[in-house]
Amino acid sequence: MTKILITAAGSYGDIAPYTGLGARLRTAGHEVALATHDSYASLVRAAGLEFRRLPADPRTRHAATADTTDAGDTRDTAEPDRPSGPSGNRDLMRQAAAFIKELGGGLTDAAREDTGLLLLSATTAPLGHHLAEARGIPFLDLPLVPGAPTGDFAPVVSGGRSLGRWGNRAAGRLSLRIIDRLYTDAARELRTRLGLPPATPRTVRRRAEAAGRPVLHGFSEVLVPRPTDWRPGLDVVGNWWPWHAPDAQLPPVVEDFLAAGPPPVFLGFGSMAGGEGERLSTLVAAALRRAKLRGILQSGWAGLSAGHTSADADLLTIGEVPHALLFPRMAAVVHHCGAGTAAAGVRAGVPTVPVPVTADQPFWAARLASLGVATAPIPFKELSGDRAVARLSHALTQATAAPARRDHARTAAHRLTAEDGAAKVLKAVTRLTETEHPAN
Q: In this predicted structure, what is the pLDDT of residue 171?
């Protein structure tokens, strides 16, 4: 038995997959704690894991800076408001660096003296490496998105467009240097606090690369085949799914709605589009009516609600409901294409209408479309203007009325559900702990 500390920071989609993974490790006999933000304490404890607090909660910051309703599910990566132009980009970098700097001290506090293994998300890994060095703790990086440079595709935050093999690799290296810059101040403070000699994030990263440290990526090769030019040790193992109780069921109001008519369409934007609930609710209700479809609106940070529209028996508003239970009952799903939500739609075997907002979402939207399980993406910024209702309605009709797309979705779901990403992490954990702490 090993005392394992998982660290993850961000919004729901950055945290939830590690609850299912942690529960699997706990079932195998390990003692597992998950360090994350206060907003997810109940989620962590419900999975049977020990909760340890990390500061810089994006949900709290979002509530303080945006006018949103208090509802439901925040599914994927939280992003600050993105002002345009060079000054806006500088502001965004400053916000991200401040978030990371606040995380550093909290990460140190979360790791107790008896910690036998660190499992690190992409956000916490550049800080966790310093902690592991100072305390001699074995660690394993467990990112949810591809991060290492490759010629196969451009960095996931670059919008999903290939720059050619040379350009993709160059852009990937540049992306890593930008990340190193974001962590520079936090790393300097953390190494001082831990009594370590000075070393830049780039130096520490390159040490790990040179040592061939294993990195297990928590997504499926159904969506992203392992890049052909990655070094040995960079593995794609399959998704880790958010934990939910084995006997969990959909709320009665949802079951009643499902029984009252044909399968509806799910619409939600997770932690995106804060404060745009009234506009988006009106738009999606009009698009559903034009396509002659029923809909379930998940509130999220946008605050979607059927209450923003005229009374409509074909619309239902919900809060947090496990996608694993809800999505298979849908005719199609409309969402922002965060990594976890995109994979959940594929696993459910239903078509997707991708509406990517920012960050890695255009990448996943393009992957879904290329797989044949989704319509052409509708960038979120295009969900405005006179043609927005017509465009969304047309996509909904394409998603629900094309048998070939549903067949592709079912085929992809069959492949994805055959994977067991958590089992591969458990195997790696066993191998790592036996290597670092061999039996006497």
A: 95
Sign of CA dihedral 398, 399, 402, 404: positive
Neighbours of 296 (CB within 10 A): 24
Domain 3-68+95-239+419-436: give its CATH superfamily. Glycogen Phosphorylase B; (3.40.50.2000)
Q: What are phi and psi of 117, to 5 degrees?
A: -160, 135
Q: What is the mean pLDDT of the chain?
A: 87
For 243-257, b/e burial (b = at least 16 CB within 10 A) is bbeeeeebeeebeeb
Domain locations in the chain as residue ranges? 3-68+95-239+419-436, 252-417
Q: 129: which residues sit within 8 A by CB, 6+ positions away?
A: 120, 139, 204, 205, 208
Domain 252-417 has CATH 3.40.50.2000: yes
- Say yes or no to pLDDT of 280 above 60: yes
pTM over 0.70: yes
Q: In the chain, what is the straight-line distance between the N-terminal and C-terminal CA atoms, in Å?
A: 15
